[in-house]
Write a structure and sequence with these properties.
The complex is a heterodimer.
Chain A (H helix, E strand, L loop, with lengths): L15 H4 L2 H17 L3 H18 L3 H6 L5 H14 L4 E5 L2 E4 H27 L2 H12 L9 H31 L9 H7 L1 H24 L18 H21 L4
Antiparallel strand pairs in A: 1-2
Chain B lengths: L1 E11 L7 E12 L3 E6 L5 H8 L7 E6 L2 E2 L7 H7 E4 L12 H11 L4 H14 L16 H13 L5 E5 L7 H18 L2 E6 L2 H5 L4 E6 L2 E6 L1 H5 L2 H6 L6 H11 L11 H13 L1
Parallel strand pairs in B: 3-8, 3-9, 6-7, 7-8
Antiparallel strand pairs in B: 1-2, 1-4, 4-5, 9-10
Helix pairs in contact in B: 3-4, 3-5, 4-5
């Protein structure tokens, strides 16, 4: 029922990308996203596409998993494309009634579609190749300097990893409660909007109770292990840059430079 | 009138790397009025199997018939099926949601479209059947003890007046006293109403005393499907799949091995006592 969500779904395999330091992957993802919005011509997107394809190939994650996340943004994609297509001013190519499609519009629409698709796939490459724990570790390290400004970096990272960890658990729980209520004759599908919203009460109340119960249990378990935040906390597997990580940074810098130079039309 | 499973297969996440066959070629006939114990190790497919019986899961291949009709025919009334085949999930108290016990039990019959009077009559009868005292009826279900919550949840299914009652590990997480109370109540209920009961459990000890028939599941297949005493004769094989016969069976076998002439087919402690006394008197 609810298994189509790719977010936070790690794909277990052994590849170069999997072994990279999570910090590298985070920075790369950010650079990739920046590059998508800097680039302004087709050659630039071609470079981005090739870069993405190579990374996917190296990651050994089946393409099917990457594309799974696309399902949820089809609607958003459609809106973005349609708006750009019809509402960009410029030289008209096709005109009928009051609607005109412009050359600029087509260009904008295609670029927007490519951007969104690459954006989603690019970020799923990161989540599919990095365990949520590693990801938050990386984020904690990257944001470390903010501690000077009294930002509770460790606490934020901890909250994120807990939240990510609970997504599949709560999905499973929802599935279970839903089945139990259907077995008691509940109907989640038919009826108008108000009736549908009302029918969710037997699902949401038990779900909230279970979420609170789990949160309570977790807090208790953390306290029993003397957890008290980030101060003086050591790590079992501290993040240390290896040679391949430096290499990866080099590749990313080259890629970004290339994108800016070529994609902005400086050459 | 019965449930028939014909070559039922069920595969989780078919077509992916996580593909897993939870049920492999299950053929079963469940006649009316039988008290059945469905036993298996964790992950043996017993929970998956019972979710097929009321149409919550659709088999990957094979068919299921209830009273002669294929439950996955397009025009089959699934809602009616779910009122006839009542399924109580594991930890059913997690599904309680109403402000008081009585309204929660009313949820099932209300969904069947019954009028208010009939709904309340059924809810009252169901709460009596599980042995909950009147004083709790208008309390919040969340203020009750674990055992009481579970009774309320079971009553919630009983109030739909099912012809078949399936209980998935109804004693999980209860203390021995709570466990015996729930099981005794179920046995009493069956005696009074004559409904079919399927008790899912991983403990032979729990079911040996009550059931007429034991179905043992292992890795998605039916390993044994016989009367309790016949199943327990395979106690060595049961151990190999991570299960065990009741302790009484072991004692009787050991006594026999040491030369006391007792019947090893005994399944309950009371019977064992009589048998040992008889053997000693000889």
């Amino acid at each position: 029922m609810l298994r189509d969500i790719t977010l936070g779904q790690y794909y277990q395999t052994d590849s170069v990308i999997h072994r990279l330091d999570p910090r590298v992957k985070l920075v790369t993802t950010i650079c990739f996203i920046v590059s998508l919005f800097v680039v302004d011509n087709f050659i630039g997107y071609l470079i981005a596409g090739v870069f993405l394809a190579v990374v996917i190939k190296l990651s050994k994650v089946p393409l099917k998993y990457m594309l799974r996340g696309m399902k949820s943004i089809v609607f958003l994609l459609l809106i973005a494309v349609v708006f750009n297509l019809f509402l960009t001013p410029g030289e008209a190519v096709v005109t009928f009634w009051k609607i005109k499609i412009t050359m600029e519009g087509i260009r904008q629409a295609v670029f927007m579609a490519i951007r969104l698709v690459f954006l989603i796939i690019g970020s799923s490459v990161m989540t599919l190749t990095t365990t949520p724990n590693n990801l938050t570790d990386g984020m904690e390290k990257l944001l470390g300097p903010l501690k000077i400004f009294k930002v509770p970096v460790h606490e934020i990272a901890m909250m994120m990893s807990i939240a990510l960890r609970f997504i599949p658990i709560l999905l499973e729980e929802t599935d279970k409660i839903m089945k139990a209520q259907i077995a008691r004759g509940a109907d989640f599908e038919s009826g108008n909007l108000i009736k549908k919203a009302k029918s969710l009460v037997p699902l949401l109340v038990p779900l909230f109770i279970s979420a609170f119960r789990r949160a309570n249990d977790l807090a208790m378990a953390m306290e029993a292990r003397c957890y008290r935040g980030g101060e003086h906390r050591t790590k079992m597997k501290p993040l240390i840059y290896k040679k391949r990580d430096g290499l990866a940074y080099g590749v990313v810098v080259c890629y970004l430079t290339l994108c800016i130079v070529v994609g902005r039309g400086f050459i | 009138m019965s449930i028939i499973l014909d070559h039922v297969n069920y595969i989780y996440e078919a077509g992916t790397a996580m593909e897993f066959a939870a049920l492999k070629d299950i053929n079963l006939v469940i006649p009316d009025g039988q008290f059945i114990g469905l036993i298996g190790h964790t992950g043996s497919g017993k929970s998956t199997l019972v979710q097929h019986l009321n149409g919550l899961l659709v088999p990957t291949s094979g068919s299921i018939f209830y009273n002669g009709a294929d439950i996955h025919d397009n025009d089959y009334n699934k809602k009616e099926l779910r009122s006839k085949v009542g399924l109580v999930f594991q930890y059913p108290e997690h599904q309680l949601f109403e402000i008081d016990v009585f309204s929660d039990v009313c949820f099932g019959p209300k969904n069947l479209g019954l009028d208010k009077k009939e709904t309340e009559l059924r809810a009252y009868a169901a709460l009596k059947q599980v042995g909950l005292e009147d004083e709790y009826f208008y309390q919040s279900p969340f203020d009750l003890s674990g055992g009481q919550k579970r009774r309320v949840a079971i009553a919630g299914v009983l109030a739909m007046k099912p012809e078949v009652l399936i209980l998935d590990e109804p004693t999980a997480g209860l203390d021995p006293k709570g466990r015996d109370e729930i099981l005794d109540q179920i046995a009493k209920l069956r005696e009074e109403t004559g409904i079919t009961v399927i008790l899912v459990s991983h403990s032979m000890e729990d079911v040996a005393k009550y059931v007429d028939r034991i179905i043992v599941m292992n890795r998605g297949q039916v390993l044994f499907d016989q009367e309790p005493r016949e199943v327990f004769r395979h106690y060595k094989e049961l151990e190999q799949v991570g299960l065990a016969a009741p302790q009484v069976t072991y004692i009787m076998h050991e006594l026999k091995a040491r030369g006391l002439n007792v019947d090893t087919d005994i399944t309950t402690i009371a019977e064992a006592k009589n048998e040992i006394l008889k053997a000693l008197k000889k």
